[in-house]
């Protein structure tokens, strides 16, 4: 695998962008493995207005399909003409911004900016109903991707929860039915593991196993496996897992995930 090869990993999540507004992020999480890319220091943004945003600023299904066509055309154009890398998009308050990182094919920065305009114009000519603007700025450290777009660790855990719940639902799980949910947490010291166990025991969790892994390369030698009966719908599992995740951080540990059996056919 070369330096710029990676596995795409697309996901979405909502997050505040300021004190009053929430943004809806669609992002390639896999890019973090190679970001920043040294020969793509320029950030390009095309922003357009959603024609009929709903009460949270997102498009209806019909318009979303059109916006997806625009997105595909932009990605193809930027990749073929500029070697552009697409980290994702952000939708805020009825506006959608598409971001790209590109290199420098022209002699100067201003020449690059001017060269981008007809490329975008050719794409948007097929969608005259949309007003748009494009911007070019230097971002060699990829701060827009790594600092603005990329989710916080606790958000990543919530997104992982959502993926597991989705898989359960795909298998017909009755998510609102409580059942044993098992959790794994790893620690670097026995002291931290013991302190964590005392805290979660008071929260109603039962001990399944304490083990030692002398070959853990990151130094998390002491593992803990616990269980409790819980619902596994999106809201319920976040209320269960995120406190465990946060408590693990407080005790210098690493929350390593959860699993449960599929529940079907319960009246």
Between the first and last Cα atoms, what is the distance in angstroms?
Answer: 51 Å
Q: Count the helices. How many?
A: 6
Query: What's the total number of strands?
Result: 10
CATH hierarchy class name of the largest domain: Alpha Beta
Question: Could you say how many structural domains there are in total?
Answer: 2
Structural class: alpha+beta
- How does CATH name the architecture of the largest domain? 2-Layer Sandwich
Which whole number gives the mean pLDDT?
Answer: 94
CATH fold label of the largest domain: Alpha-Beta Plaits
Give me the strand/helix succession: EEEHEEHEHHEHEEHE
The amount of helix comes to 25-40%
In which order are the strands of the major sheet placed?
1-2-4-5-3-6
Based on Cα principal axes, name the global outline.
elongated
List keywords for this structure.
29% strand, Alpha-Beta Plaits, alpha+beta, 34% helix, elongated, six-stranded antiparallel beta sheet, 267 residues
List the helices and strands and how they pair.
Layout: E1 10-16, E2 22-28, E3 42-49, H1 61-82, E4 85-92, E5 95-102, H2 109-124, E6 132-138, H3 143-149, H4 153-170, E7 179-187, H5 190-201, E8 206-212, E9 222-230, H6 234-250, E10 254-260
Antiparallel strand pairs: 1-2, 2-4, 3-5, 3-6, 4-5, 7-9, 7-10, 8-9
Helix pairs in contact: 1-2, 4-6
Describe the overall structure.
The chain is of the alpha+beta class and 267 residues long. The chain has 2 domains: 140 residues, Alpha-Beta Plaits; 86 residues, Alpha-Beta Plaits (2-Layer Sandwich). It is built from 6 helices and 10 strands. The strands form 2 sheets. Strands 1-2-4-5-3-6 form a 6-stranded antiparallel β-sheet, with helices on both faces. A 4-stranded antiparallel β-sheet has the order 8-9-7-10, covered by helices on one side. α1 crosses α2 and α4 packs antiparallel against α6. The protein is elongated. The model has no long low-confidence stretch (mean pLDDT 94).
């Amino acid at each position: 695998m070369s330096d710029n090869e990676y596995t795409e990993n697309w996901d979405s999540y909502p997050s505040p962008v300021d004190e009053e507004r929430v943004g809806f992020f669609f992002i390639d999480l896999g890019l973090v493995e190679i970001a920043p890319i040294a020969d793509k220091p320029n950030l390009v943004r095309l922003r357009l207005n959603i024609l009929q945003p709903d009460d949270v600023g997102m498009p209806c299904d019909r318009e979303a399909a059109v916006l997806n066509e625009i997105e595909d055309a932009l990605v193809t154009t930027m990749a073929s003409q500029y070697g552009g890398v697409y980290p994702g998009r952000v939708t805020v308050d009825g506006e959608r911004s598409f971001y790209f990182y590109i290199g420098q094919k022209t002699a100067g920065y201003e020449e690059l900016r001017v060269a981008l305009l007809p490329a975008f114009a050719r794409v948007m000519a097929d969608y005259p109903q949309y007003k748009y603007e494009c911007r070019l700025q230097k971002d060699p450290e990829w701060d827009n991707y790594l600092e603005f777009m990329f989710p916080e660790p606790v958000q990543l855990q919530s997104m992982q929860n959502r993926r597991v719940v989705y898989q359960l639902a795909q298998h017909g799980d009755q998510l609102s039915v409580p059942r044993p949910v098992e959790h794994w947490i790893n620690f670097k010291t026995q002291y931290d593991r013991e302190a964590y166990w005392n805290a979660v025991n008071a929260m109603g969790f039962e001990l399944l196993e304490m083990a030692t892994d002398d070959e853990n390369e990151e130094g998390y030698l002491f593992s803990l496996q616990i269980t409790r009966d819980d619902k596994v719908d999106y809201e319920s599992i976040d209320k269960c897992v995120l406190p465990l995740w946060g408590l693990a951080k407080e005790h210098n540990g690493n929350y390593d995930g959860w699993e449960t059996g599929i529940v079907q056919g319960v009246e």
